[in-house]
Specification:
Radius of gyration: 21 Å
CATH class of the largest domain: Mainly Alpha
Mean pLDDT: 90
Shape: globular
Helix content: over 70%
Largest sheet: none
Low-confidence stretches: none
Number of helices: 14
CATH topology of the largest domain: Growth Hormone, Chain: A
CATH superfamily of the largest domain: MFS general substrate transporter like domains
Structural class: mainly alpha
Number of domains: 2
Distance between the termini: 21 Å
Length: 398
């Protein structure tokens, strides 16, 4: 398959991830306008609408993964794009909060279809640099999250109708759809090979019910490690350390910037020096050490170091690298790997807000302690997977 074709498919996939990240936060960013349109004036109403995203994502992620292995990647990427179009267009005409909730479920569905089609497609377009191709997704997600607040500020400053932004997003998706639709995708059975180009690297038979399940659980632990910091670091800094509210919220900007830097660094390191299997042990270990230092030094300087340190270690693509390891072990079940791992990753967004706030109310350092335990469990799971990985895979060939 030609390189040009691979790059144009990858370009469209990455462009989709900018829209995906915008869609995930667009309801909250334009909450004032959307609340007025739905005639709901409280935060709970708009929160209810936004929660539809989580339900749509969790319900379809697993099924999407299995079907993507069966029917190929392209139909699912195009279906994901169509779901976003339904959401953006539908919201413009929606005046009922329950209909809005259903439309938000289309964001979740689009998210699931896009992930279960795109992640395997990227590794199949670039089998020799699957780790790099997968980690770069994170950068494009960050672009969307960085750009949208500026768009919202511009619309507020000039008192423009938010619908124009939505029409802009739809136009972007339609153009991308038309560029991607005629492309021929690589075989869904393409095996990830190392820099040497070997695809016959098995010396044993991997066990989906042992290392497969451990990797799926890592989908939860690697995500939970950064979710706790992303959602709770400002509160920990403000309540536990006494930082100013503005300064504590700015910690997340440092965290986001560090995570973008980390994406490119990790992508480079994985391509040149370290195999993904080592990264899924080293990165959580670095996260755990950062959290351990924080636990014993709750001060403003340390919270800034933690924001940057966790951005670099926990949010720079560790989930994507864990996924690459699973796709290396189970090349014929790449979609299944994405579906199961991302379902567990999504669960962390539901479970963490149920547990951490209650602990943080008792003592702020409990939230950090939970995060430390979660990061260490990733390290332990990673080490067990590594011991199995060495037995079934010839390390010199990947």
């Amino acid at each position: 398959m030609s390189n040009h074709n691979s790059y144009s498919i990858a370009g469209s996939i990455y462009a989709n991830y900018i829209i995906q990240s915008i869609a995930l936060i667009v309801i909250m960013q334009f909450s004032v306008e959307i609340s007025a349109q739905l005639k709901t004036d409280d935060v709970i109403g708009i929160g209810y609408v936004a929660s539809g995203i989580g339900y749509g994502k969790i319900l379809l992620m697993f099924i999407g993964g299995i079907l993507s292995d069966k029917f190929g990647r392209k139909p699912f990427i195009l279906m994901g794009m169509s779901c976003y179009i339904i959401f953006f267009v539908g919201t413009l005409f929606c005046h009922n909060i329950h209909v809005a909730f259903c439309l938000a479920m289309f964001i979740g569905a689009g998210n699931s279809f896009l992930d279960t089609g795109s992640m395997p497609a990227l590794t199949e377009c670039f089998p020799r640099s699957a780790g790099t191709a997968s980690v770069l997704i994170k950068a494009f997600i960050s672009i969307g999250t960085l750009v949208l607040p500026f768009i919202v500020t511009f619309f507020h400053a000039y008192d423009l109708w938010y619908g124009y932004a939505f029409i802009g997003f739809v136009t972007f998706i339609i153009i991308n759809f038309l560029l991607l639709a005629p492309r021929k995708f690589p075989s869904k059975n393409t095996v990830i090979c190392g820099n040497e180009g070997h695809s016959d690297y098995f010396i044993g038979k991997p066990n989906i019910f042992f290392e497969g399940i451990l990797l799926i659980i890592m989908g939860f632990t690697t995500t939970a490690t950064f979710v706790i910091i992303l959602q709770w670091l400002p509160a920990i800094a403000e309540k536990g350390i006494g930082m100013e509210p503005i300064a504590s919220k700015q910690l997340i900007s440092y965290y986001s910037t560090a995570s973008i830097i980390s994406v490119f660094t990790t992508a480079y390191i994985v391509k040149k020096f370290i195999k993904p299997i080592y990264c899924i042990i080293i990165l959580p270990l670095l996260s755990a050490l950062t959290l351990l230092m924080f636990l014993f030094n709750l001060n403003p300087t340390m919270s800034l170091i933690v924001a940057i340190g966790m951005g670099l270690t926990a949010a720079g693509g560790i989930l994507q690298l864990t996924l690459v390891v699973m796709q290396q072990l189970f090349p014929d079940r790449k979609g299944f790997a994405v579906g199961t791992m991302y379902t567990f990753s999504g669960l962390s967004f539901i479970v963490i807000p149920l547990i951490v706030p209650k602990l943080a109310l008792i003592n702020v350092s409990y939230a950090i302690l939970v995060d430390l335990v979660v990061a260490l469990s990733s390290v332990i799971l990673g080490l067990i997977v590594y011991s199995r990985f060495k037995k079934v895979i010839d390390m010199n060939k990947i």
